[in-house]
Each structure stands twice: as C-alpha cells, then as structure tokens.
Amino acid sequence: MGTAMKNFDVVVLGSGSAGCAAALRAAKGGLKVIVVEKSTQLGGTSAMSGSGVWVPANHIAASAGISDSREDAIRYLRAVAPDGWAATEDGRWRAFVAAAPDMLRFLSDNTPLDFRLINEPDPYSEAPGGRRFGRMVSPMPLSRRRLGRYGPRLRRSTLPHLFTYQEVVDLDLYHHPIRAGLKLWPKLLARWLANAGGQGTALMIGLIRGCLDAGVTFAVEARAMRLIQDESDRVVAVEVDEAGRRRTIDAPRGVVIASGGFEWDEAMRHRHFPGPFDRIGSPRSNEGDGQKLAASIGAALDRLDQANIYPCLPTRYEGKLHGLPMTFQAEPHSIVVNRHGRRFVSENDFNIGEAIDAREADGSPVHLPCFLVGDHRFLRTSLPFRWYAARDPGWVKKAETIEGLAAQLGLPTAALTATIERWNSFCRDGRDPDFRRGENGWETYKAHGTAAHLKPIDAPPFIGMSLNRSILGTKGGARTNEHAQVLRPDGSVVAGLYAAGLAMANPFGTRAVGAGTTIGPNMTWGYIAAETILRQNL
Predict the structure, then answer these.
(1) pLDDT by residue (tens digit) across 24-43?
(2) Angle at the Cα of 495 (from 494 to 496), degrees rounded to 5?
(3) Residue 67: which residues within 8 A CB-CB, separation 6 or more?
(4) Closest CA to 77 of 127, 126, 120, 121
(5) What is the DSSP string of 99-128?
(6) Tens-place pLDDT, residues 411-465
(7) Which of 526, 521, 516, 520 is closest to 483 using CA atoms?
(8) 185 close to 178: Cβ distance less than 8 angstroms
(9) Beta-ladder partners of 398
C-alpha cells in the first residue's frame, strides 16, 4: 500500500477551477487540504479557457448599479432549460443561484483575482428573467510569477491569453489580429515581460495563489487510484500513485472529485457520443478518472451524454493535433448543413453545439455528419482561420461547382443545391425566415447586425469542411444533491464523497445559459461542496 499521509482533512481530486474553489473554501474554513493533480500541469481545462464566468446577481454588477436578483435568475433558468429538466434539476438550480454570488465575493476577497464585467448578454436575454448585461465577468491579467515554483507548472492555453476576454471581444481578435495587436502592443509587451496572462491563465493564477496563501498543498503527477471506505461505507481516504509509488492520503472530512470530463477516454466517448466527431479542446488528462472512481464504489452516474460542445479549429498542442474553440461557423458567405444537405440551426446560435449533437430516441445522431459550406469569400474573412486550417491538411474541400462540392462531402447534390438557392434568396431579402440568423439579442450582438452576415454563396470556387461534434469537456458524472454530495442510484448519500465541475452530473448540461455557463457553475459547486464539508458534524 505504501506510506500513509494522515495530516489532511480534505482531499480534492483535480486542480481546475472547481477543485481550487473547493480547496480554498475548505482551507479558509480551517481545514487542511491537499489538491491531487494527475498531470504534470496545474489548472485543468479552466486554465485553457477563455474564463467567461456566468454568475447572476453578483456583487460587481450591484456595485455598478446594475439590477439583478436571484429570483430573476431562477426564472431565467427555468425558462430556457431543456424540456423535462426542471423535474430533476430545479433543486440544484436553486442551490447554484443561492450560492454563486457568495462564491464570487469569496473569491474576490480571498485571492488576487480582479473580476470585471463583460459586455455580453445572456444568450436568451429575451426570456423571462434574462439580462442584457451584468452576469458575465472575467479576470484581469495576472503574472505567473505570483505562483513561485508552481508558475512553470501552470497549464498553457491554445487561446491568446495575452489578451483579456473583453479585449478579445472589443477588438474582434479573430477577424483583425494584426490591428488588435498594434492597438494594444504596449500592454501586450508589458504582460509578456511580466509573464502575465488574462482569461483562464489569470483565473487559475488567482485561484492557485489563493489556495497557497491559505495553506493548501498541491501534489502534482499524482493519480488517484482508489477511494477507501470505512466499515460504515464512508469515504475516508484516497490511494494515489506517484511515479509508481502508492500512498494513502487520509481524508476524514471528505473527498471532492473535481477531475474534469472523460472526453479523452475513447471508449467512454464513443459510448456516450456516437457518430462523427471532430476535435477535443481540453487537456489529454481528462480521461474520466473521477467518474470511474465514483462508479467503483456504487455512485450513480448521470448526464453522461452531455458536454460543452462548440466548433473547434485544428491547432497543435503538446505536439499533437488539438481543438481550438472558435466561432468560425457564422461568417458571411457560408452556412451549416446536416447530412441531408439542409440547414437545421442559425449559424450564430450560441447553442449550435446542442443542435449539432441532437439525438434520435435511440441515441443516434439526427444531423451528423454536418458541414460548413460556402464560397471562396469565406476564406477572406479571417487570417487566423487560414492559419489554423493549415494544421489539418485536407480538412477544407474546394470545388468549382456545388455538384462537385457535394460529391467531395458526400452530400445529396439536389438537396444542397436547393438549400444554397434558398439561402441566397434570404440574402436578397435581407432576412432568414427559417432560423432568424442574427435577429435575437445575442446574435445581433455577436454578428454586429443581420445585414453583415446574410451574404450569398454564389462565387466559385466553393468550399466545405466537416463541422461535427467538437468537445471542450463532457458534463456527465456522479449524480449529486443540492449540497454537492454524491448519491447512489437509490438516492442515498455516499458519505464523505462530493463532486463538482465537469466530474459531476451537470445540472445545466449541453445547453449553455450564458457564455460562462461552465466555469461559473463549476466554481460554485466546488464552493458548495466545501461549505457542506464545513457544516458536517463528525
């Protein structure tokens, strides 16, 4: 069994935002905490992210005089959730809304994080309880030097983290990278010299620094192998493997599973996301360790068919082909079609990933394979697109005719021709009656107006490429109650075991309610787990 480590109260599995939020809250509550990270780098998926953080009724908005309430947030969640989800998730929605503002204030008070409001609306801002502004925040840049010896251990991103989230939005970095760089070059140079970053880099620097200041221990390259239970079936310890050496870490107050998704476990991914698949944009260490550990002691797993699904460009990461999340599918002179050659969603829909992932009753894909099709003018809209597309030779297909493109993509020629002709008629009329592309608050904001994006596909050569599922993180795992306690299939609590982030059965699932739907709730569930641990009487 190896040696035993008995000087800890809580073990947190995973060093992303959910895990660090849990560790920090537990440590500030007086407990001794260790964060166990199996990879060589800290920060998990959160460190790679854009770090949009969706928190309704937050103190930053209130300080700016922006009106919001927990009651409106609940109304919004209930209004925009998938049919039937309220029956099982309403209690967890209410728990999230109750705790999220407290979580954000706690992080603001106990870390170097400087959260700022982001000028983005709720994707369904017209729905009851929706807001056009005030629920999205993101951190200002921080230097890796704040982490001391852990600075080089912070996971790097495929995204341009020299920029803040708001700068990426305001300067339209995707379309105008050179102009954005020239406009901000003094700031960017200063950040580069300071080894600083914004977005997910800043978020995880702040969280890890806060944890270190609170006395949290980090064990890197330590993989959790087994949950250990006592005679009453309470989880009381974790067996970990450190470079082939087994050791047991006691956790008398609890174990928090926050180890991320399972998208890099090929067998699990194929089982729960059958059909064509493009790319993954998360760390390769996301192999479902937490889900497997929970299942091994009888926990209920749920929502395994849910994920953060969004279009990804091909890039290189750690020397291998990887996914870079980017909104490239909503450009002028292009549309998205399914395997039948027909449009099925607004290309600007914030939840286009959910539409791509639509399932039949038996779980098989409705639309896959899907494709982006357009004409050669699509390629002129973004220098970064051409740069990244070159990472995957053969991905972009070209043809002089629609018939030739249909043949290359394996699409029915007549249907694709009819779809493009219909789209071109919408462009002449200036409106998309099928899916209202660019018309709601979110799409108008993102598309900068309908007219800019209703452009015809009529100038050869024509182009096409796959637009299948790309996963930024699965959202299924251990089923939890409103206290983040892991449950068995009969609804009973697995004492001593908690789950948060992408390792839990996520109460929001694939449908995002805001651009920061992943990280805001993930940190909140880590915070809730720690609050529950601190309230337990042992």
Answers:
(1) 999 999 999 999 999 999 99
(2) 115
(3) none
(4) 127
(5) HHHHHHHHHHHHSS--EEE-----TTTTST
(6) 999 999 999 999 999 999 989 999 989 887 777 776 655 555 789 999 999 999 9
(7) 526
(8) no
(9) 463
